[in-house]
What we know:
Layout: H1 2-12, E1 20-26, H2 29-32, E2 42-47, E3 51-58, E4 70-71, E5 76-80, E6 86-97, E7 105-110, E8 117-123, E9 127-135, E10 137-142, E11 149-160, E12 175-177, E13 181-183, E14 189-193, E15 200-207, E16 210-217, E17 222-223, E18 230-240, E19 243-244, E20 248-255, E21 265-267, E22 284-289, E23 292-299, E24 309-310, E25 313-316, E26 321-326, E27 330-337, E28 346-348, E29 352-354, E30 357-359, E31 366-371, E32 375-384, E33 396-398, E34 402-404, E35 410-414, E36 421-428, E37 431-438, E38 443-444, E39 451-461, E40 464-465, E41 469-476, E42 479-482, H3 485-489, E43 496-499, E44 503-508, E45 514-519, E46 525-529, E47 544-546, E48 550-557, E49 560-567, E50 571-574, E51 580-581, E52 595-603, E53 628-639, E54 642-652, E55 663-665, E56 679-681
Parallel strand pairs: 13-20, 34-41, 42-43, 46-49, 51-52
Antiparallel strand pairs: 1-11, 2-3, 3-5, 4-11, 5-10, 6-9, 6-11, 7-8, 7-10, 12-14, 14-17, 15-16, 15-18, 18-19, 18-20, 21-32, 22-23, 23-26, 24-25, 25-32, 26-31, 27-30, 27-32, 28-31, 29-30, 33-35, 35-38, 36-37, 36-39, 39-40, 39-41, 43-48, 44-45, 44-47, 45-46, 47-50, 48-49, 52-53, 53-54, 55-56
Amino acid sequence: MRRILSLFLLTLLGITAGFAATETFDFKFETMGDDGWTNSYTEHTVEGTIANVVFASANKQTSTITDVPVTKGGNVTATLNNINSYKITGVKFVCKQWDSKTQTITLNVSSDGEAFTATQTTSDNFTLEATGLDTKAVRFTFSSTRNQVGISSLEITYETVPQGGDQPAEVATPAITVASSFEKGADETLSISCTTEGATIYYSIEKDGETLVELEEYNGPIDLSGYEAGEYTVEALAENGDATSDIAEATFTITEPAGPAGSTATFGPDFSASNWTVITADEDYSWTKDGATLLIEKSGSSTATSQGLTNAHLRIYKNAQITISGSAPIESIQFTVVSGYNLSNLTPSNGALSGDTWTPTGDVNSVTFVAGAQVRVSEILVTFKEVDPTFVAAPTITVTPQFGVGADEAIFIDCATDGATIYYEIQKGNEILVQYTEYEGPIDLSQYEAGEYTVVAYAVKDETQSETASATFTVTEPVGDLTALKQVWALADNAEFTFGAKTAVLGKDKNSRNLYIVDLDNAGGLMVDGGANNTWGDDYVFGKAIGSGWSGKKATYRNQPEATNTQNFAIDGTAEVQPLSIEATDVTAENYGRYAVIENATVAAGGTIEGYTLYNQLGIDMANVAAGTYNVYGIIGLYNQNLQFWPMRYEPIEDPTFVAAPTITVTPQFGVGADEAIFIDCAT
């Protein structure tokens, strides 16, 4: 269809392209200087010959990306200095990824340098290129305002615009307004407008490749209530005298309306909707539509507020879970994930995740997802298979996969079919411990011996029996006294242990949530979670010793081994640990958690060291570290897959040839004959 409109455009206006050239902006600080960039995030302008580039919010960082400006979602805009004489025909925008943080870049264009329209041109690989443009300004926007990204360069290709007395005036590109998706028969309209006074708008509509409307003059909103289901494309241009605008394009989808009970039902919560606000922990969300009921159960955290819907998304914290169930078998579940979070961190109790969609194995009406790391979703869309009024949902079994003997654990069984009776059986190996009996409430597991167990359950209503559900769990003997922190690394998650040796405190993270300890021989380190109080007190500082005999549970957070649920964990005097002298090649996973020193390090202002990835995990004042030579002490850290060095302190190394200036001491004023004297000293 664009060919039709383009031919129409050529009949109205024929302009020969003028002289073409490029202008390149190199944003390296060594090229353009860093004056003013070291402040907090703020607006900056870089002036060019043909165009100026404006950073809405950027600064110079002291770690990770230090050679080019860094923004956290602030847009970058390039506008021609003379929009009447030139036009932009192409761009190449190059960025730098900050560690593993993701961004999707979108190209926006403007015919006047003020009003911008998003294009279909996007990139998630940190380089965006576009050709065939005809615009006066471009703007690059980012999908996440939380993830940093470095801005390396921008290349603009431009052409001269033919000049002369008969040059037609510019006509603004029309704006097309239509809902992106709606059901057949819905009261929806298509509207087109143009800001150029007196312009005539022409439009075409295409459905699934077939032209329905060809180059008709637009005379008002177009009623879409009679349109059939399908994929539609609408294009429009405006004409004023001999001048013609660029072509505008929009797409929309009309879907068949959801049928009555007995047909497929697809629905779910959009957490970005305005009616969703913060909901407290363990809140359940329930919807009913077209004979199917959807229930999302949230559990796994005692946090009072942030466990529900927050900032237009649902948070599933590490080791927490959500259970999605309904009154009919689930065909699929599609998630919309907040940028920067990975759906693969969810482990389903049945079926498999592929991309953003989960599909079941067999007919199931319920699935539980456990988060290995925090996941945030802005929408969950559940599609059910045919709704059978006699269908009885298979039970949902919830139990911690592994725990120690005597732990306060229980089995919970539920069924989404109202009025159904649940029966369960518990097996240990080939032995049946509990033969099928009616479920009446949580099943206490605190008295169960060590071993591997299977719980099986089904539900019955009106003589109709559900499919059978099953789950396994393991009860472990407590691990005996460990004497090296690397032994904790080797344990399975949720394994309980006691630790029989003294360790030394290295420091706390910037929020005092996690404590870092190390063996007295500096063989390995460990992160210790702050527990119920969510913090470590002022006594837990470098040089203190942790006494032996404490217990805990092994966990893994962002690939870091971690001790949680600690008991009898307390300071016992002081301890001295000799640091490991390292080079950049020694920052390895094997050395995780060890106390280390980078000797005779050449440090730049702000504390950065070339060749090392530094992260201020301990919250020290790196910003005021002056350039010089230091012995830098810290911890070899790991976050996700990123090996880092976490500085603890910078000790300057004095110049052996340096001679200090003398210090003169004398009373500034006194009377004749007073018992006063001049004293002179030198620190060297």
